[in-house]
Amino acid sequence: MLYDFLIVGLSIGILYGLVALGISLIYSGLDIVHFAHGEIFMFGAFFGLVLYDEAGFNYPITLFVAMILAGIMGVIIERVFYRRLTSQGGGYTVAGMGMIICGFGMAIILQNIAFLIWGANGRPMHVNFGMPVELGTITLPQSYVWILVVSVALMAVLHLFLKHTKLGLAIRAVAANKDIAYLMGVNVPLMISLIFGVACALAAAGGVLIAPINYVQVEMGYLMLIKAFAAAVVGGFGSLPGAILGGLMVGVFETLGAAYISGSHKDIYAFLLLIFVLMVRPTGLLGVAAKVKA
């Protein structure tokens, strides 16, 4: 029974890590917390629902197209709204408090747009994954297998992109220091838009992956945001490997707590873990002390 809970916890945890990865990616590149990221996750789930149930796409194509749509959505939001709150002087200097308020406002706007389009009632996404996978004495629904496989694949692709491509090198240069990256010829505004697009695509992937398990509804984003935020902080805010580790820890801790303590208090276990980690290591497990960027 313990192994069943561990596998479910890892499946949900890697989903938290996937969304937390987008939050950390935006933070490492722009030094801001994107508080509307949960709503991008929610829109990704609705994109998947429409593409699969109404347009008739198969599940892999649905996942890919939803990521593209959410990525474009993220780029538009960054260029139209967030960019106006930044000042350009060789690079982007973020107007911190204004960006935080804008993030909250954007979350409310996106939630209400979704409400006007799809209504308040939850809707199921009927995906036929086939027979469950048998792992010895463990029976694992294929929906969880999809979450594990797709999440790991996306994380691997992101790692290869950042480490082994010129665009990835440019993104890492912008994350290190925007002014110096600008002086070295990097198109900083374009890289910032790309960071937003990639991060939003990851959030949408999480939404499509969770849609066959949970009902797709307008209010699903805020809970995922705070779980992913907890995962990012536990792993070390701004650390991409830390976001993955934090997500796995939150998922396993939450699942085991619900199984062995109380399922009715499931949502508090992630924050108990968060408080404990911050007491022991304030920077998170893989985080480092903040340094002034030269």
Helix content: 55-70%
Mean pLDDT across the residues is: 87
Category from helices, strands and their pairing: mainly alpha
Strand order of the largest sheet: 1-2
Distance between the termini: 52 Å
* Count of alpha/pi helices: 11
Beta fraction: under 5%
Radius of gyration: 19 Å
What best-fitting shape do the alpha-carbon axes yield? globular
Q: Main beta sheet, described?
A: 2 strands, antiparallel
Any low-confidence stretches, pLDDT <50, length ≥5?
Answer: 88-92
SSE ordering: HHHEEHEEHHHHHHH
Secondary structure: number of strands:
4
Q: Briefly, what is this?
A:
The protein has 11 helices and 4 strands, in the order αααββαββααααααα. The chain has helices at about 1-30, 35-55, 60-80, 95-120, 140-165, 165-175, 180-185, 190-210, 220-235, 240-260, 270-280, and strands at about 85-90, 90-95, 135, 140. Residues about 90 have low confidence and may be disordered.
What does this structure look like?
It is built from eleven helices and four strands; from the N terminus they run H-H-H-E-E-H-E-E-H-H-H-H-H-H-H. Residues 88-92 have low confidence and may be disordered. Helix 1 runs parallel beside helix 5. The protein has a domain at 14-218. The protein has 294 residues and is mainly alpha-helical. It has a two-stranded antiparallel sheet. A two-stranded antiparallel ribbon has the order 3-4. The longest helix is centred in the first third of the chain and has 29 residues, at 2-30. Strand 3 and strand 4 form a beta hairpin. The chain is globular and about 60 Å long.
